[in-house]
Design goal:
This is Heat shock 70 kDa protein 12A. Pfam families: HSP70 (PF00012). With 443 residues, this protein is of the alpha+beta class. The protein has two domains: 198 residues, ATPase, nucleotide binding domain (Nucleotidyltransferase, domain 5), CATH 3.30.420.40; 213 residues, ATPase, nucleotide binding domain (Nucleotidyltransferase, domain 5). The chain is built from 15 helices and 24 strands. The strands form seven sheets. Strands 1, 2, 3, 6, 12 and 13 form a six-stranded mixed β-sheet that branches. A six-stranded mixed β-sheet has the order 23-22-16-17-18-24, with helices on both faces. It has a three-stranded antiparallel β-sheet with strand order 8-7-9. Strand 17 and strand 18 form a beta hairpin. Bound molecules: adenosine-5'-triphosphate and magnesium ion.
Length: 443
């Protein structure tokens, strides 16, 4: 196969995810020495540094310019809301899935922001890509001191889910072009392919020789299933390692909308069961800052849940939520909880805290975990057809031991591997793919 190596000075990738997004890059001269030497954006989350930021966009009332992205967008919108100045602003969260669900997707497709205001999907997405592109270029400008223009020297890569149709993929390409990325400098990488490319570069398998354990890459002939479990979708593909180290696609990507945000959705449903939808809606409308805070707290806490943990997870209930609840009902919170199906699994604790049994938090995972297991079962049951011996779990949701242990327990003859920083594998793999597109051989 002809070499598909990039001759550009550097490769920059944008992973535009359902829940989280980020950018990363690497220079060609670094790639040639050590491919995994990739620089990833560091976002300030307010409580620490994180490699991804929430896919949240705050667009000014002019409907044309983006004011902030990520954690900054969430914080700025909350402060606007506090002063009741937010009504004319556009606030978009987790909007990527709208493209997946819309079969009539076109340049005219509109999406709704959190308060129901409409805007062209193309506008929102191109503004986000523009932001990420400019942010990356600003960092590069501070690193590259020579006078030459490096913009032409960038190979851009944008990731899309493999289960998206051609329409959705070309929609993303158009949005990137609108954001100022030249068509001939742009590659669209399929998320599980990018993940697979990255996994070719990192040691994965452990082998015992002479009583010692060494780590070796997957050997030729190995067929493995890549499970990219993100926030929105779980994408599944099967690849085989060839003699020359390249990859052959054995089965086209399949999957569905069973990502980590289903867990958040289950938590929201749980809150609705206790407080009722009108109270939760009013809470969101009146105190968006506290509303976001509750879900950010859940994001942190849910990552602590394990398949066999027994500890309670305590959530501080925002005062605003309790006040709205009390203005709507005569009953106490304990009375209301006692009427729900999970009364035995919740405790009202001192200091406006709710203690949730770990088994209850685990139950929030079950719908999405069940869907993933059902989907994988077919590939597991048909060894003669697929010949899979290894499963590589990537994507942020794979970092959950509840998901990875369920896969290990149910498919015990597979060797299940979860690379370090599983949530960054797609992004880093997209950079590697930009340097050398020949790694995946289709068919
Ligand atoms: N340790 C963890 N335990 C449980 N869930 C986790 C953990 N780490 C990340 N997640 C979840 O993984 C999801 C984010 O994964 P990722 O960043 O790969 O998704 P994404 O790229 O935004 O989505 P997609 O690829 O579907 O567009 C979120 O739902 C997040 O809550
Ligand atoms: Mg992703």
């Amino acid at each position: 196969m002809a070499s598909l190596k990039s001759h550009k000075l550097l490769v920059a990738a944008i992973d535009f995810g359902t829940t989280f997004s980020s950018w990363a890059y690497s220079f060609k001269h670094d790639y040639d020495k050590e491919p995994t030497q990739i620089i990833v954006k560091e976002w300030n989350s307010g409580i620490g540094i994180s490699s991804k930021a929430p896919t949240t966009a705050l667009i000014r009332p002019d409907g044309k310019t983006l004011h902030a992205f990520g954690y900054d967008a969430e914080d700025k919108y909350a402060s606007l809301a506090q002063n009741n100045e937010h009504k004319d602003w556009y606030y978009f969260r987790r909007f990527k899935m709208a493209l997946f669900k819309d079969m009539t997707l076109s340049r005219q497709t509109q999406i709704e922001d959190e308060s129901g205001k409409k805007m062209l999907a193309m506008k929102v997405i191109s503004l986000v890509i523009l932001y990420l592109k400019d942010d990356l270029q600003k960092e590069l400008a501070s690193k590259i001191t020579s006078a030459f223009s490096f913009e032409e020297e960038i190979q851009w890569v944008l990731t899309t889910p493999a289960i998206w149709n051609d329409k959705a993929r070309s929609f993303m390409r158009e949005a990137a072009i609108e954001a100022g990325i030249r068509n001939d400098q742009l590659l669209i990488a399929l998320e599980p392919e990018a993940a697979s490319v990255y996994c070719r570069h990192i040691p994965l398998e452990t082998k015992s020789s002479d009583g010692r354990t060494s780590i070796v890459p997957l050997c030729p002939g190995t067929r493995y299933i890549v499970v990219d479990a993100g926030g929105g979708t779980v994408d599944i593909t099967i690849h085989e390692v060839m003699e020359d180290g390249n990859l052959k696609e054995i089965h086209k990507a399949t999957g569905g909308a069973w990502g980590g945000q289903e867990v958040d959705e289950a938590f929201k449903q749980f809150l609705i069961n206790i407080f009722g939808n009108p109270v939760l809606q009013k809470f969101k409308l009146d105190a968006i800052d506290d509303y976001n805070g509750l879900f950010r707290d859940f994001e942190v806490k849910k990552r602590k849940s394990s398949p066999d943990g027994t500890a309670h997870l305590a959530f501080t209930l925002p005062v605003a939520l309790l006040e709205i609840f009390q203005s709507e009902t005569e009953e106490t919170l304990t009375d209301v909880i006692n009427q729900t199906p999970f009364a035995a699994n919740i405790k009202v604790l001192k200091g406006n805290k709710l203690g949730l049994d770990s088994s209850l938090v685990r139950s929030f995972y079950y719908p999405s975990v069940r869907s993933v297991l059902e989907h994988l079962q077919v590939f597991y049951d048909n060894y003669e057809t697929y010949g899979i011996s290894v499963a590589i779990l990537v994507g942020g949701f794979s970092e959950s031991p509840i998901l990875s242990c369920a896969i290990k327990d149910n498919f015990s003859s597979w060797k299940v591997l979860v690379p370090q920083d599983a949530g960054l594998v797609v992004l880093k793999g997209a950079v590697l793919y930009g340097h050398d597109q020949s790694t995946i051989v289709t068919g």
